[in-house]
Amino acid sequence: MAVITEKLRLERALRRHDPDRFEKEPAMKFKSEKDLAKVVVKWLTVQHWEVWQEVRFGRGGPVHDIVALRGRCLWIIECKKTLGWDVLAQAWRANANLISVATPHAPFLGTYRTNNKGRFLERVCRDYGIGILFVSPDQLQNVDNPDLEPGDEYFWDKLVEEQVRPKFRRNLGPNRYRDLLETIPKAFAQAGTKDGKYWTPYKETMDNVRQIIEKFPGCDAARIQIELKGKHHYSGEPTGVRSSIQQAILNWEKGWCRAEKVDGKYRFFVKAEK
């Protein structure tokens, strides 16, 4: 590891003294936002942040690429291969103590700072308290390397550079977000994926519903409501909650659930996998 660190130091020194040489060399690039997010997740993890990916809080809200928690500090990070208005608007809608956008490392900061668009976007981020993380793809293949210790300087100094530090927001309204994270599996989805898989309160409810139906095949909505023991996202009177659960299963969960009407009541079964 000492050899790798010394190599990186030498590379940085050469860039300062002969930047033209490096600008002519083909730089590694992230093939997808998934790869970019993977580096950010690693960077956060070695700093003892708990990390969740592809999370939506509440109904109709944005899906956040990365949500990190350390102590009581909540940090939301949006990942994009190009730093532009779309990702800034997405970050601006977030509600957390810290908000940042992560983007591939600009082609050597000197070039970035002389670019009018880059300078203006950076100014907007500073004005609105949004942080900017520059992420390097140079060592992407080593992110999962078990031979590299989490505390190695390589991770701190090379993978991610905090170009703009996010403003700390003390008046975080929905403190329940922090508590809600404790119920979300960290490995539910990977940030940057395009398959539409992300965590929502509805999906957590349906995951619990499926487990109940697997345990009690042929149960009805009333039994499901009892077994949920309040662990669902629905609000209102018990009869209304029961009706909402039944309608959700009948209308939107047909892919895995089979319903049979017996004596005027719907009975639910998990479909056998083909």
What is the gist of this entry?
The chain has helices at 2-17, 19-24, 33-45, 85-92, 109-113, 116-128, 153-159, 176-181, 201-215, 221-228, 238-252, and strands at residues 50-56, 63-70, 73-79, 98-104, 131-135, 160-164, 257-262, 265-270.
Write a structural description.
By secondary structure, the protein is an alpha/beta fold. The chain folds into 2 domains: 2-181, 3-Layer(aba) Sandwich (Trna Endonuclease, Chain: A, domain 1); 201-270, Orthogonal Bundle (Arc Repressor Mutant, subunit A), CATH 1.10.10.10. The protein is 41% helix and 19% strand. The chain has 11 helices and 8 strands. The protein has helices at 2-17, 19-24, 33-45, 85-92, 109-113, 116-128, 153-159, 176-181, 201-215, 221-228, 238-252, and strands at 50-56, 63-70, 73-79, 98-104, 131-135, 160-164, 257-262, 265-270. Helix 10 (221-228) packs across helix 11. The longest helix has 16 residues, at 2-17. The termini are far apart. The model is unreliable at 21-26 and 107-111 (pLDDT under 50).
